[in-house]
Amino acid sequence: MGTLTASLIPSPTQASLFGLPLWLVTLVGGVALFGAFQVYYWVGRRLGEKLYESRVGARLGRERIQKVEKVVARWGALAVYACFWVPMLRHTLPWVAGVLRISYPWYAVASALGCLTWVPVTAFGLYAAIWGWLTLAARSPLAAAGTAVVLAVVIATLVLVRRRRRRRSTAEPDLVASPRA
């Protein structure tokens, strides 16, 4: 059964993509992400407030953008590093940092450190998790199916709890009190 797993996906130490070792693909991905973060910063810096009126800005909403602005204003370059680990923040913070014109040298250092830490952890971590699950599936399909079901239930529960909290926090209180008889 172990050879079935090896034919499906190689171990993390022997993995390759397009004939390139996984570590090299990860390095290229990290450099590309660093480049994208620099483009986002300069687009934000160049467009300034116009960016908030764009489709992206309108879709995100001014309130959400203002929350990101507060994070950037308070934490500066540390927020840039931390945004790699927060899914939606990773996509909005770089251009907001440009609009707010935080120090570019600090921004570049923080985004480089973010790429150096987040990209390898994500690439190798996800690859190892997938490889581990396929190894489990090759040994015991029932255990792999059970693991997948448990993971799906945990994710669904987290999503539902988050949605309920969001609804509660955005729900307006009833301003009209019902008269008591």
Automatic annotation (TrEMBL):
The chain crosses the membrane at residues 20-43, 106-130, 142-161. One of its GO terms (cellular component) is plasma membrane. It holds the Pfam family VTT_dom. It is found in: Cell membrane. It is a multi-pass membrane protein. Residues 21-125 form the VTT domain. Keywords: Cell membrane, Membrane, Transmembrane, Transmembrane helix. Belongs to the DedA family. This is VTT domain-containing protein. It comes from Spongiactinospora rosea. The lineage of its organism: Bacteria, Bacillati, Actinomycetota, Actinomycetes, Streptosporangiales.
